[in-house]
Amino acid sequence: MNADLLFELGCEELPPAPLQAMAKELGQRVSDGLAELGVEAGEARIFATPRRLAVLIRDVADRQPDRDIERRGPATKAPEKAVAGFARSCGVEVDALDTIETDKGPYYVFRGQEIGQPLADILPPLIIESIRKLTTPKRMRWGSLDEGFLRPVQWMVCLHGHTVIPVELFGLTADRLTSAHRFHAPEPIALEQAGDYETTLFDHQVIASFEERRKIVAQQVKRTAERAGGIAQMDAALVDEVTALVEWPVALSGQIDERFMAMPPEVLITTIESHQRYFPVRNAEAGLLPRFVTVANVESLDIQQVVLGNERVVRPRLEDALFFWEKDRKQSLAQFGERLDKVTFQKGLGSYADKTRRLEALAATLAESLGADSDTATRAAALAKADLVTDMVFEFTELEGIVGGYYARESGEPEAVAGAIAEHYQPRGPSDAIPATPAGRVLALADKLDTLAGQFALGNRPTGDRDPLGLRRAALGVLRILLEAEQPLDLRIALAAAVAHQPVDGESDTPDALQAFFADRLRGLLADQGMGADVFDAVTALELADPLDIQHRCQAVRSFQGSAAAASLAAAHKRVRNILKKSGADTATVETPLFEADAERDLFDTMSRLAEQVTAFVSQGDYAAALEQLATLQAPVDQFFEEVMVMADDAAVRSNRLRLLTQLDALLRQVADFSHLSG
């Protein structure tokens, strides 16, 4: 008989970060396990709260189905002892075996039926294996148990319909008793049947579904902020975290003392969001209001006391921040910078003062290449790391750079310098914006390139999934700045400059390794834009060093790829490259008197006519126009290979034809190496 299947693992409060992933993995493992066992099952739902992980699967059969089995044994001419042993392993006499004809002759075969096992027998091992294999940050042990889990397990529920399946794990035996809200419903609750799980918990102040609870959190926070006269700033990650911290969300609004509003809004937001898990409230003009929204896990009889408690908790954090803000501003940012020589950047790479000098030199080089104001970029580079020794950044490390921008303004630095300092860590992640100002982009590039060059020179290169220094993120940041700001830059030259400024000689392959590292990151970025691997390979085969130029070429080649001319030229270019690879390219001048066929002359004339136009379009970066011209080569190229034997008996004719193909190869490779294109 089919019935709903429920398994719930009840724990002490689980950390919020891995909660969703663990619940999804548990549901997937149990569902996949039932499928592998052949047990009929319907849709699976997962549940996750701070105190539980659960999976509910609809319409699960109460046993495995019986199945026909067939086992092939030894050949009929095998020794009797071998045949008897095979029959014995199948639980039958030799007379009960059938025979089957194969291409190697007749063989004994056993045909029978395997009786399916009851769910009550096969589910406990599946549940235990799923829990043991569950990905968790770090397992802990408690009591005298050898088994461990992320947090101590307090109870387990396992029901198939109305029936308890007694899974034994962590010194507990699963039954039908669950726990609801710690304060609103502290006594154990007996579940009548598995399908009652979600509604029973809801009746006892637990919203078991993470998705439903998240919707309620977002709705309540939005409405509460509106009642407070503003708009809630709801960071998606914070909504997830708060959802993982509560079982029965109740949003409340609190007040911030006006005197704290003199601080930069980023300081207030960091205190409210990162340290207290509160939601800031803004006005219609996006200005910060002296209000916040917090989400409690209880419906209090005295809401005002809960609000006052939250206000009392956040006040000391804001007091500290205000103290740092006022104290730091008694010095100029440049005075803080004088202390950087006492702060180590990295062993082998000197102090932050050393890094600052490298940034100044590299920023000057990049400003010239990128058309930014060199004086602004170098002044911003000189002050970029000074805020690292301020009390504010020591306490709020995530505000590095941002605090420096404010302190630069307070110190009387130009706005362009302050803005560059504030945004030079951008983009901080895949969803963060790139720097908005030219000097900010130059400084961000210099900072990231210096870090990459230094770490690669020391041999600290990412391997596998490991990247503790965030070098992949830094490289992606460089590429995003160049692509999104449409800034052309010869990355090979920029990397060479960054490596040259390092205080260590480094490994000999550092520049090449960095170039390959960036190529891999660029491949991924362009793949996200829909670029095929063959298109990327066709363009990068030219050993280009400007990411923006590579992107533009890839976009043009991708558009061109679907045409008939592209397929024909790709096939012809493959043939050309193979011929030149075997026979060698010949860059000498083509001699027209040696032409023996009209197809040779037609191809040469078409190439001669196109060469100047294609070169002009390529120099302008108009690769679509260049490809449009190259497409006219389709007919003469096809005719050439149909009518002309390249490897002619006459050595002079053969050499001349190889020269013609060498010129054709060079003409095509002005845009891309079409031999890499598929299809």
TrEMBL record:
Reaction it catalyzes: tRNA(Gly) + glycine + ATP = glycyl-tRNA(Gly) + AMP + diphosphate
Residues in coiled coil: none
SUPFAM superfamilies assigned: HD-domain/PDEase-like (SSF109604)
Main location: cytoplasm
Residue ranges of domain DALR anticodon binding in the record: 571-670
GO molecular function annotations of the record: arginine-tRNA ligase activity; ATP binding; glycine-tRNA ligase activity
UniProt record, GO biological process: arginyl-tRNA aminoacylation; glycyl-tRNA aminoacylation
Locations listed in the record: Cytoplasm
Signal peptide: none
Sequence similarity: Belongs to the class-II aminoacyl-tRNA synthetase family.
Protein name as annotated: Glycine--tRNA ligase beta subunit
Natural source organism: Abyssibacter profundi
Lineage start: Bacteria, Pseudomonadati, Pseudomonadota, Gammaproteobacteria, Chromatiales
Recorded name of the encoding gene: glyS
